[in-house]
Design brief:
Length: 308
C-alpha cells in the first residue's frame, strides 16, 4: 500500500471528527452567519486544534467571508480548507549536507521515540544513506534492547554501552564509529524525560559539546517526537521542550490512533516548528517525511494528481 493510502486510512478518525462534521454542518445551513461559524468553531476545538488556533482560523474565515462576499455555506467549507492548508505549514527537508550529519532525537517516554528512530533510520537507508545510531538513552536497558531490534530491521548500525553509562560517552563512541565507517548520518537517542528540565538541559549540553568538539561544522537536526493521541498534552510538551532545546523539527507519531489529529495545527501554531516526519502505523515503512500538501489532501480525502 502506498504511503498516501496509508495516510488517508490513518487520518480517517480525524477526518470523521472534522471534515465529515463540517460537511454535515454546512449542509444544514442555508445562509452564512455567526451561528454557522460557531458550529465550525466547536468542531475544531473538539478535534483538539486548541482554542487559540481555532479562534485565529475562525477570525481569518470571517474576514475572508466578508472580503469575498461568500453567501453559500459550501463555499465556506472551501475557504476553511484553504486556511487550514496555510496553517499546517510546509514540512521542510532534513539538513543532511555534511558527512556525517547528526540527528538528535528527544521526547518523553512513551511517545514512540525509539520506534521513530528505527523508522527514520529505515527511511534514510532506503534513500541510500549509511546510518549509525547512538543508544544514548542509557537510563533504561529496555530502551537499548528495543533500539537494537529496530536498528537490525532498518539496516543501521547501533553503538551502545551498558545501562547507566554516560550518554555523552556513548555519543563519543558513535562519532568515532561514524567517522571510521564513513557513515552519512548519525542518529542520537536521548533519555525520555522532561520532569527535571535542568537535568535534561545539562545532558543535552554535554552531548552538544561532544558533537561540537568531535564534528565541528556538521549539519545538525534536533527532532522532538510527539504522540498525536495526546492532543493538547503534545502541545504543552512542545512548548516545554522548546525552552530546553533548539528544536529544528517535529515528529508526530500515532496519527492513525486518534480523532484528535487536529492537534497538528495547534502544535505548529504554538511553537512554529516545522513537522518533518509523521507516522501512521506500526510498520517500519509507516513513517515518512512530512508533506503538507499530501497531508491536507489525505485529510480531505482527495486524490493525488496524476503527475505525482
Amino acid at each position: 500500500m502506498a504511503f498516501f493510502d496509508k495516510l488517508k486510512n490513518g487520518l480517517k478518525k480525524t477526518k470523521d471528527a472534522v471534515i465529515n462534521r463540517v460537511d454535515a454542518v454546512v449542509k444544514s445551513f442555508r445562509s452564512v452567519d455567526e451561528d454557522l461559524l460557531e458550529e465550525l468553531e466547536e468542531i475544531m476545538i473538539c478535534a483538539d486544534m486548541g482554542v487559540e488556533t481555532t479562534e485565529e482560523v475562525i477570525d481569518e474565515l470571517r474576514d475572508r467571508i466578508k472580503e469575498e462576499n461568500i453567501k453559500d455555506p459550501e463555499l465556506v467549507k472551501d475557504a476553511l480548507c484553504e486556511i487550514l492548508c496555510e496553517h499546517v505549514g510546509e514540512g521542510g527537508e532534513l539538513d543532511l549536507s555534511t558527512v556525517p550529519s547528526v540527528i538528535l532525537v528527544i521526547g518523553v517516554n512513551g511517545v514512540g521515540k525509539t520506534t521513530s528512530i528505527g523508522k527514520i533510520a529505515a527511511d534514510l537507508v532506503r534513500r541510500g544513506k549509511k546510518v549509525v545510531v547512538a543508544a544514548a538513552d542509557t537510563f533504561r536497558a529496555a530502551a537499548i534492547e528495543q533500539l537494537a531490534v529496530w536498528c537490525e530491521r532498518a539496516g543501521a548500525e547501533l553503538i551502545r554501552q551498558s545501562e547507566g553509562s554516560d550518554p555523552a560517552s556513548v555519543v563519543f563512541d558513535a562519532i568515532a564509529a561514524s567517522k571510521k565507517r564513513c557513515a552519512d548520518v548519525l542518529i542520537v537517542d536521548t533519555a525520555g524525560r522532561l520532569h527535571n528540565k535542568k537535568n535534561l538541559m545539562d545532558e543535552l549540553s554535554k552531548i552538544d559539546r561532544v558533537i561540537g568538539r568531535e564534528l565541528p561544522g556538521c549539519s545538525r537536526e534536533t527532532l522532538l517526537v510527539l504522540d498525536s493521541t495526546t492532543g493538547q498534552n503534545a502541545v504543552q510538551q512542545a512548548k516545554e521542550f522548546k525552552k530546553a532545546a533548539d528544536i529544528t523539527g517535529l515528529v508526530l507519531t500515532k496519527l492513525d490512533g486518534t480523532a484528535k489529529g487536529g492537534a497538528i495545527f495547534s502544535i505548529k501554531n504554538t511553537v512554529d516548528i516545522p513537522v518533518k516526519y509523521i507516522g501512521v502505523g506500526e510498520g517500519i515503512d509507516d513513517m515518512e517525511p512530512f508533506d503538507a500538501d499530501q497531508f491536507v489532501r489525505a485529510l480531505l480525502d482527495t486524490e493525488q494528481g496524476e503527475d505525482e
